Amino acid sequence: MLAALKKYLMVPKLVRLSAGAPKDHHLAWDRFWSGVKTTGASGDVLWDSGSDHEMQGYLGRLRLHLNPDLPVVDIGCGNGSFTRHLAQHFPHAVGVDVSDHAVRRARTESDGLANISYAVRDMTAAGAGTWLAEELHALGRGGGGAPGAGANVFIRGVLHVLGERDRCALAENVRTITGVNGRVFLAETDFRGNAIDYVSHLGATLRSIPAPLEGAIRGLPMPGRFGPKERGLAFPASRWTLIEDGPATIETMPLSNPVRADLIPGYFAVLRARTQD
Fold first, then answer.
1. What is the mean predicted confidence (pLDDT) over 177-199?
2. Pairing of strands 263-273, 184-189
3. Bridge partners of 244?
4. How many other CB atoms are there within 10 angstroms of residue 47's CB atom?
5. Vertex 222 angle, CA 220 and 227, to 5°
6. What average pLDDT score do residues 110-115 get?
7. Over the chain, what is the mean pLDDT?
8. pLDDT tens digit string along 209-253?
9. How far apart are CA 38 and CA 35, in angstroms?
10. What pLDDT is recorded for position 144?
11. Residue 42, number of CB atoms within 10 A of its CB
């Protein structure tokens, strides 16, 4: 009991660390990525484990539910670690991120790969889905060039850091991208505890906080949780058909163990847009 209570002594420190985080999420994410020096298992990005282990856990469902002949859009691509894995299984992978610095790094790390492209775009902004769908069609990458045929969408670790309004806006843009034949696969953290429990789970103590975790606390939006309830609000049954959902495991870079990724309880869902009556 005493040990459980002691972790709450971290509250003042966490408040101080997070006080300087930009309120504007464009600025927050771009400032964060501008300071990233390295990625992967020993890098600066908390959620980049440097391994394909998490992706391997998704592949069975991606193969089962997503059309392999359609391109895939990776929303919130960061440095493109998942985009590059997706490109091995779909004809083209498009990574999209709100941060210009993230997209620059993704392009550098993906140099030489022919079936990948990247774009800077806020996918919560009005019209972002239409813009991307038109770009895919112009390039002949949306449903084989057929208008409205759509593309698949992959979202990992984005929705849990958005407010409800932005989640709904992103979902509507995704609906435009998927069109008739595209599907959505999402995987998000669904940690059942408060912020103190969360950072403690990732190795924060009264004495120290792992550097990648401290960097996220200092500069980024406070994460929330995204499970079935949140998915139902962002992707309502009137607009979306739920194909499958269940528990997932989100991996971070090694924090508490130098050779093994840390694991966060998560949630996955596969959806398709309902057609208009």
1. 91
2. antiparallel
3. 270
4. 17
5. 125
6. 94
7. 90
8. 888 888 998 889 888 899 999 999 999 999 999 999 999 999 998
9. 9
10. 44
11. 11
